[in-house]
Protein: Six-hairpin glycosidase
Organism: Penicillium expansum
Amino acid sequence: MEYPQESFVATTFAPGSFWARRRDIVRTQTLRHQLQMLRITGRYDAFKLQWHPSYSDPPTMWPVPNHQFWDSDIGKWIEGACYLLMDHFDEDIDAAIKELVQMIQGAQHPDGYLNIHYSVVEPGKRFTNLRDMHELYNAGHLIEGALAHRLYYKNDDMLSPILKYVDLLVATFGDQDAQTPGYPGHPEIELALLRLYKVTGNEKHLKLAQFFIEERGNPTGGTERRHYYDVESEARGENKHTLPVHFPAARSYWYQQAHVPIAEQETIEGHSVRAMYLLTAVADLVRISQPDSKVGATFLPVVNRLWSNMVEKRSYVTGGIGAIKQWEGFGIDYFLPQGTDEGGCYAETCAAIGVMMLAERQLQIDLDSHYADVMELCLYNAMLTGVSLDGKAFAYVNQLASSDKDLSQRHEWFECACCPPNVTRTLGYLGGYVWSYSTNEQKAVVNVHLYTAATLRLHLSESMIEITQKTDWPWNGNVDFTIRTEGPLVDLQLRLRIPGWAESWQVTPSPDQLDIHKGYLYLSAEWLQQNSQFQLSCPMQSRVVKPHPLTMQPVAYVMRGPIVYCVEDADHPWEERHFKMTVFDPKVPLREETRSQPDQYIAIIAENGAKGELDTSHWDRQIVSEGNNAHVGESRDLCFVPYYLRANRGGRGQMRVGLRVE
Amino acid sequence: MEYPQESFVATTFAPGSFWARRRDIVRTQTLRHQLQMLRITGRYDAFKLQWHPSYSDPPTMWPVPNHQFWDSDIGKWIEGACYLLMDHFDEDIDAAIKELVQMIQGAQHPDGYLNIHYSVVEPGKRFTNLRDMHELYNAGHLIEGALAHRLYYKNDDMLSPILKYVDLLVATFGDQDAQTPGYPGHPEIELALLRLYKVTGNEKHLKLAQFFIEERGNPTGGTERRHYYDVESEARGENKHTLPVHFPAARSYWYQQAHVPIAEQETIEGHSVRAMYLLTAVADLVRISQPDSKVGATFLPVVNRLWSNMVEKRSYVTGGIGAIKQWEGFGIDYFLPQGTDEGGCYAETCAAIGVMMLAERQLQIDLDSHYADVMELCLYNAMLTGVSLDGKAFAYVNQLASSDKDLSQRHEWFECACCPPNVTRTLGYLGGYVWSYSTNEQKAVVNVHLYTAATLRLHLSESMIEITQKTDWPWNGNVDFTIRTEGPLVDLQLRLRIPGWAESWQVTPSPDQLDIHKGYLYLSAEWLQQNSQFQLSCPMQSRVVKPHPLTMQPVAYVMRGPIVYCVEDADHPWEERHFKMTVFDPKVPLREETRSQPDQYIAIIAENGAKGELDTSHWDRQIVSEGNNAHVGESRDLCFVPYYLRANRGGRGQMRVGLRVE
């Protein structure tokens, strides 16, 4: 099972467990809330191709109309809904999906074209602005929606029109004469086409994805031997001395991941979601082509070096990426301020989801716990913080520190609403991230990436095998495994990720020899047959960590297991300066406190952990001073709570992850 | 004497002294080198109004033609040359000035208009793009050139045509019907008009300056009740959805200091040179109008709060301002990285000159040594580093740390050549910064802002008084004053600035009572009559200082007196990483070493001052780590040299001011 969006069906989360509770809320609250938002904003009916008053609104990011992404909002909601319907049937959701699919069918042009904006607002202008408009991005999300639809409904009601649209795209784009040598400004369709290829086996779907990937950023593309976006821009009559008001610079094609061909990129640049979606497709292309093929040998080093650049030099402690708001993406190496008033911090929810997608692809190529560590980090922190406990409010931006300008808060919806349905679909197929597996007759290999109370049920040629994790993860590091087989013996190999953050760990009963490769403990069929029940224990304790010295952040973070902590004014009601001046003493003992409201979690109390506030009086009227950064004021207790829990318990939106240490 | 550009004539620098040597080089080398550059680039002959091939060059910063500033380059060179001719006549320079003035006369339109670009390249388009084009900026520099010309030549050969041009501007701009309610994108003419007003006494010159200052940024200006740049842009047919490629954002009028009226600005924003030139004019308007007038009461608090914001939150240790390259200006509060690879550092030479201009105006309003401290800091560091020891190479940008992308180096000229002639004219009238004074019959008040070997000679109604400083400043803090009077007794009050950096100081012989106001020691006529010779002593010793904690810069700087130090690879030939990884132990003793090559200066040696290099190995493949920032490698000596001396002694352009401390 190559894709988590398919493999997740074999997983059942234990009722009432950490992720089961979150998924229940998404299923019962978020899906309906988002359906409601689709309806009231006009998205729901948009595939009827009637004029909507908002189509006259001036674009917030000219030339991109505000309704530009509506097709994808529908596609992602259908995708998420189909995953969640697998848990429990829901009549209203089912009816909405069916109606949406009917509207999509009805919106298709005779030649297969399918897009709201270019059907209603600018007919005749299709494919004239691949750089800025999101036609192909939308197509990608419709493909992913259709694949999920097919998985649940087991019919082609949605896939059929989408395949017809893809036929048009296959005919339109490519390097043959009369084809357009272009590629989408926002990658997405590449990864969707690769997933589609698995289902259709149609080589043209693979080839189109590969063309989009390889042609992107080509400075001598097409018959004109020029950069496609230059050619296209000229054809639109754009003045080369001016640029759209939201562009960061002239020919800033790094924003679109198209400044140079991906094979030549040395550092991860530009829009972080675009980067992740593109790299996910590139990694998947490597996997499909095999790492030692010509394609694999070209692109695997690219994926690896861009990943390393990202993780080592351009990632936040939460797994979040993207410091720069202007282009929603990466800054220079080690430029990782915590919030707006310190220089920026974007860490878009979708980007964290993208990191998880990429890490998952990397694990398929190279089973190295490093990738799973980052995937787990994003899951519990940069991604999970993007949705409220009640499932009805979302964060687009996930800063590490609030400021008066940008409080720590969530919103019920966004004009550009990519993040909310992205969270929905991610939690929908979450089981696909927990483990990956392959089966062959009576053989099975299961790689356990994440620990959580869940069961994996695999059907082999003659047997059924069930692997159950019982655990209170992420609060407790003990995981009880039970393996149960129905039918003849199965040759099962189990590979358990040893978390990078675990200072110690053990398996009980302990195997005679620990067979560890790249951070995974390989448990043999033989040992498993003798030990159908065993425990992995990764003791969790609060720890204080620091960012890379070149980030110039004189701060420390509190973590426990995979969870990154923050402080909020809800627990420190006197706080007025977003904890910017708070001096943390990382040497005080950290006491853990289990809480049950508003959800179960462990708070961490640092008694007298705040040594006071930074004393900056030496610098009054001065540029520099001999004064040392002494602190003033009383010591106070600090209460750390999980970062994902922020903005759920009242307060005035004051929050900080990294506290200053001296 | 209100303006240093006039008052400097009373000062003579002691031959062979620190500033005398620099001014001799500027006079004998820089002036000629710059004249040569004016000739070979086409600037020299440009007022002949012939086509120059470079006029066809595509603009580097569209829509601003590269030759846009040529008028000002001529104006500033004439200005600087006239100041320096006062020291020694120079036949070639004199001839060039005369020829230039003839060409300027010949270039004037019958109605007074005077501008190279709009006469040759775009006739008929004058005053259609005040926002981007530098017509009025150029006019300002021509006014300043004409004032200097008149001061030296004592004729109106240059001032006459300029006054005719100003008449046209007075008629063109203003709030009357049929007048244009616009103002220049780059302030300069405001401060020039105020200086002109002093000479002409023509109220219209004052009023036009005041109009430009008050109208700037008015959101409801003119008969259209809109922002003038919006009106103007629309008239040019600009698309509101696009912007010139070098603009940082839509309607980024803070770049032009026009986002809101200056009276409403709370923080110092945008282009740092434009900010300083504007505030210099505003401060001067306050002085002219008197601080307690309506105008003074409106604008003095503005000047004070923007100055405070700049000095306390947006200035580098060198006095340099402007972290952001894109708009050559200010970043957010406390965002002060040292170099390109850390997020930026611009600190343009002209901006430092602008800070000096503003500080000098502030001192006229409020004699507070704080302003003189900053003025001295800029003079010896952010400004002086902009010119090489041989006077033939210049720095536009003055970063605190080099990087592979931006080495520490100077250039012989720039396409936009504002900085080189700005240094020339500043050193030309440097005497005007040393002291300010007022005389009235037989009374004189002299405020000594800077210490240097120089003599001030003042002619009173019946007497001549001569005040001489004998000192090795900035290397030695002892200053011997001698006061000599010819003629009847003069009622002289002397006010000596006590430098903010001086940890101790004394005057010998010591007055019975020390009368100190805002950092100035007031010496009475009575005491001075009894002590015509005395010494001020401000012992100089190496000291280690730090930036404000909120700058997040974990570094320390070495200073001595007013001099900021740096390390260069010339003294540490093994250095390859721009001292970025060097860990400095600020507790080691600092040894001073007097050197005479390539110029006299004091180097500071920190024996075993480098504790090794930052050990970042704990962060390999990690986002965060529990590892502490330990250092690895051997201790090594560090040799600090004055920052202004950088890039004068060979090496590979590796340099850093702030070294990391643990």
Observations:
- Chain B touches chain A through 61 residues (CB under 8 Å).
